Amino acid sequence: MRYPSHSIPVEGMIDHVNLLKKDNSRLMASEFESIDPGGQFTWEVSSRPENRSKNRYANVVAYDHSRIVLQKIDGISDSDYINANYLDGYHRKNMYIATQGPLPNTIADFWRMVWEQRSSIIVAMTRLEERTRIKCEQYWPAV
C-alpha cells in the first residue's frame, strides 16, 4: 500500500509496517533505500580520501553543518573525523548524536566521541549482523 508523498496516516501505520516486514523485511529495506539521502547538505569532510575508510557505507555520510568534530590528536591530521552528527531534540539543539555502527578501525574514535561529548546513554539501533551482513563491530567488552 502506497500513500502520496510516502505519507502514512496514523491509522494505517501498523498495516504498513506489517506489509514492509514480510519477505524477510525486503520491502522495508527497499523503502529505506529509496529515501533521499539529503542532497541539500554538503559532506565534504566525509568524502575526503583520508576519511572514506571511516565510513561504513559510501552513501551514509556525516553532514558538514552538524557533524561531531573530535579533538585532534597531535600529529594525526584526520583524527577529528567520525561519521556522526548532532540531532536536535524537542526542547534542545544538539541533544542527540546519530552515528554509524563502529568499524574495526573506528572503535577508538567512537569511545573518544562518547567521552568528549559526555554521552551517558548509548542506544544501538542495529544488530552486529543482519541478513548475513556485518552492520556493526562489537564495541563493548565480551562477557
Supply database-style keywords:
Protein-Tyrosine Phosphatase, Chain A; 3-stranded antiparallel sheet; 2 domains; single chain; 143 residues; alpha+beta
Describe what you observe in this structure.
The structure is a single chain. The protein is of the alpha+beta class. The protein folds into two domains: 4-33, no CATH class; 44-134, Alpha-Beta Complex (Protein-Tyrosine Phosphatase, Chain A), CATH 3.90.190.10. Helices cover 24% and strands 13% of the residues. The chain is built from three helices and five strands. The strands form two sheets. The protein has a three-stranded antiparallel beta sheet with strand order 1-2-3, covered by helices on one side. The protein has a two-stranded antiparallel ribbon with strand order 4-5. A hairpin with a 2-residue loop joins strand 4 (129-130) and strand 5 (133-134). The longest helix has 21 residues, at 13-33. Pfam families: Y_phosphatase. Residues 28-143 form the Tyrosine-protein phosphatase domain. One of its GO terms (molecular function) is protein tyrosine phosphatase activity. It comes from Dibothriocephalus latus (Fish tapeworm). InterPro entries: Prot-tyrosine_phosphatase-like, Protein-Tyr_Phosphatase, PTP_cat.
